[in-house]
Amino acid sequence: MAFKSYLRFFSVALAAMSMAVACGDSDDPKGSDGPDRPDVPGTEESDLTFTMSATNPTESGVAISIVPSNDNEYYYWDISLKEQYDSLTEVDIANSLKGLTADYLTRGPIEVTAEQFESMVQLEPGTEYYLWAVGYNLPKGTVTTSVTKVAFTTLQGEFTDAYKAWLGRWTVTSASSASSKPLTFTVDIESVNSAKYAVSGLTTTVVDIPATARFDKETGAMKLMCTSFGQEDGGGQIGLVEIYYIGVCEYNNGYTVVSGDYPGMEAEMDADKQHATMKGLSVSVNGQSGPMDLDVVGMEYMALQVQGGKVVSFNPADGFEQGDFPIGPYSMTKTASGPLAVDASQKAVSTTLRLDALKRRNAGAAQRYSFVSSELRGMMQAR
């Protein structure tokens, strides 16, 4: 599968944990919905049901309980943004789960405390989610029941002064990958929640999707994240691509890009709260001779071919040249304070959920792409 799920984080950790398992039905009033068993094409009939709960939410975790009616039947479970899940049909979900391997499936009950949850994966503060499960036939690779789900909302964190200090409009200056002339950007940093920002304008390309940054509560720093925005059809010889705001790394006297979910650059605020410096971090990859660390020198929007494995460039925005991208460190100067929150529709900009496999199509996509990049020496995946 070409998409990422919270379940991937849990699969290894759950197997290693010793937990107390509830063996009976729950009387929790916040228990599960359904199942209604709609007529879903490809769905087999099964009597499997689930007793589920999602309780004691924190800013980034929740206590979950899933008790199937038959411990011998496989099922798939996951956690999804409520907003994203509600935009899908049961047919969409059934189709997205075809052909799963046993690594993605579970048998028997699951009990996870909020503390255990947070040690494995971090949810977004102040955000609505579903915990959901569906029966599964492993040999046939199809779902066997309709979805059983329960909603929960994580707690909203505190918007501290250190967090708010990053909000607003900044002039950002960097070196150039293609010339000795510096690059200058007008960048807006807006709030998504108490741990996350939407960053607009930090690109030489025509892509207008906000990048994602995270706030480090311990240090007050802001970390720019490598983020996948899903897939679209680039048309012609380009074909299906996955869009990334991606880390560009020095490699073999040139540059390569590294996909994955990792912080690529970190910005530290000066004492005056009006200036900051953003520097590249390192990312671990599997090289030809084993694990190795690469230094991120900049970040940019690029597309990776799903078939063909090449890096595809976007057309340049006005005032920038084709194939140029920023090289750090970046110098940041605040020019205006901004609003506290972005529009709610941007909260799902950088999801890491399995349902991202449902591809979005853009009829004008081909106009956004230019050529297969010759400046980059292939691509790598973060460990």
How does this structure look, described?
This protein has five helices and 23 strands. The chain is mainly β. It is globular.
In brief, what are we looking at here?
This protein is mainly beta. Helices cover 9% and strands 42% of the residues.
| Beta-strand content estimate | 35-45%
Number of DSSP E strands: 23
Q: What is the averaged pLDDT score?
A: 79
User: Radius of gyration in whole Å, from Cα?
Assistant: 22 Å
What is the rounded distance between the termini? 17 Å
List the strand order in the largest sheet: 8-9-10-11-12-16-17-21
Sequence of secondary-structure elements: HEEEHHEHEEEHEEEEEEEEEEEEEEEE
The largest β sheet comes out as: 8 strands, antiparallel, barrel
What low-confidence regions span 5 or more consecutive residues with pLDDT below 50? 1-43, 340-369
Structural class: mainly beta
Level of helix content?
under 10%
Number of helices: 5
Shape designation: globular
